[in-house]
Amino acid sequence: MTTTSAAEQRAPARSHWPAVITVTVATFLVVTAEQLPIGLLTSVGSALSVSEGTAGLMVTLPSLVAAVAAPVVPVLVGRMDRRLLLIGLVAVTALAGLASALAPSYPLLLAARAVVGVAIGGFWAVAGGLAVRLVPAAHVPRATAVIFGGVGAANVFGVPIGAVIGELAGWRVAFGALGGLGLVALAALLAVLPPLTAERPVALRHLAEQLRNPGVRAGVVATFLIVLGHFAAYTYVSPVLQDLSGIGAQLVGPLLFGFGLAGIAGNFAAGVAVARRPHRTVLVIVTALALTVLLFPLAGTGAAGGIVLLGVWGLAFGGVSVSLQTWMIKAAPQAVEAASALWVAVFNLAIGLGSLAGGVIVNAVALRGDLWAAGGLLALAGVAVWSARRTPGLR
């Protein structure tokens, strides 16, 4: 007897690809908003008289706020049409960008960044699993890959372009441009996004229920360890390339651009593979990540080895988001939004903790020790993924 999942039952009869593309633009906006300050730390610190370390809170704070907002926002909004919610969150992102551009002091700038964190968490809790509402079931993995393509595009284009704008015209103009992009994304969402009724509003008990779902639980643990390990190492990839691989500082920027391009390719390759074999796809990705990071202290001690390993690293990590989001959709087809909210919360928490842990390890043990520790976390993630090999829907 053939059964039909709740996700398949509510899937539209026809594809809304213009809406998928528009959500991708919104994804580009949200990720750029989260990471834009990375290229502006020095100029913001100089203008507002704070150290670069203190200015770094502009990146850390939104991630931590997003970790809290991801499960809280869906609970608070109840049955609110998700179309209106997404439009509202994108509007908040745009306004927070404009507020950042006009902030007269660093505390007010941080307040605007905290608001960005709320928008990030709420947006991803809904948008990550939105493909099931916009395209027929057979096209969900491809649409999910397109939506997450906005993440790679933001890393490759959004953040570097923001840094260039900041260098040429000042950091306030860069934040203002972000606000302008938000208004464009807002107009596009208003034009093409169809109504998205909340058929099953998320309640706190639904979040707790998902933690009892073996597939979701394994996915959450794997996500935490993968993202923790990745950011513990990748946060310090610039000194790794220079001090360990002997690559000149002038080449780091182009190599990271290549890392981003490899990530975009990995995103779409994983989107195809995960549609057929979700468990195997995630297992291959986490194995590649673990081996790459663990091999860096051994095979990455020269320029050629470092460049090759960096490319493999980018290709593998590019597939993480789309594969794990698809994992959540398949593990909890009747509660995609609740499972996605937990996933986004853990993902953002791990970003902040991974960067922090990497800094502690680098200061205590040096770069090689950081890579070994990060590789160990990724290996543990592989164990978590392997443990779910018999979970229905994931094989």
From TrEMBL:
Keywords: Cell membrane, Membrane, Transmembrane, Transmembrane helix. It is a multi-pass membrane protein. One of its GO terms (molecular function) is transmembrane transporter activity. It comes from the Bacteria. The chain crosses the membrane at residues 57-77, 84-104, 110-132, 144-165, 171-193, 214-236, 256-275, 282-300, 306-329, 341-365, 371-388. SUPFAM superfamilies: MFS general substrate transporter. It is found in: Cell membrane. GO terms for cellular component: plasma membrane. This is MFS family arabinose efflux permease.
